[in-house]
Amino acid sequence: MAKAREQKGFSLIELMIVVAIIGVLFAVLVPRLGNSSDRARVAGVRNDFKAFETAIRSYYIEHAAMPSDTDISTNNVLETGRYLDNEIDETNDPWGHVYTYAYTATTTADATVTPNLPAGTRAATIGCAGPANTAGTYRMIIWVDTANNNTLVTSTAGF
């Protein structure tokens, strides 16, 4: 009688099952990895905002005023004035959109500003458009609290 030959390797069905399992795992894990990338970028925005806050506070201590729009956009005082670390890209957020900076010498109590600030408040707003490139997705507002010895107060939104 002929001896049964030992087969080495996998059958086609076994290989197809392994490929199907890998496909299911890939379909489940890839969307989660995309979300972690956005979470990392949001964390980057938070870190950039902290750096901007520190730079603006340092500028305020030295000059008794916050930098104007022109100081930021044209003169780039935060970077050239030793206030902002050179490793931080003060112009682009982690998605590649431009950070916005707006200085208001005196605000009116306006619902478009979060939080609502008393009339006459000096405030700086830094904005980040986020992944959808929607203005104001993330923002930080620094204002001078005249009722509390002209201290700077910071508020963030969108996180």
TrEMBL record:
GO BP terms, alphabetized: protein secretion by the type II secretion system
Keywords: Membrane, Methylation, Transmembrane, Transmembrane helix
GO cellular component, one term: type II protein secretion system complex
InterPro entries: Bac_GSPG_pilin, N_methyl_site, Pilin-like
Family annotation (Gene3D superfamilies): Glycoprotein, Type 4 Pilin
Stored PROSITE patterns: PROKAR_NTER_METHYL
NCBIfam families in alphabetical order: IV_pilin_GFxxxE (TIGR02532)
Localization: Membrane
Protein name stated in the entry: Prepilin-type N-terminal cleavage/methylation domain-containing protein
Pfam families referenced in this protein's UniProt entry, alphabetically: N_methyl, PilW_C
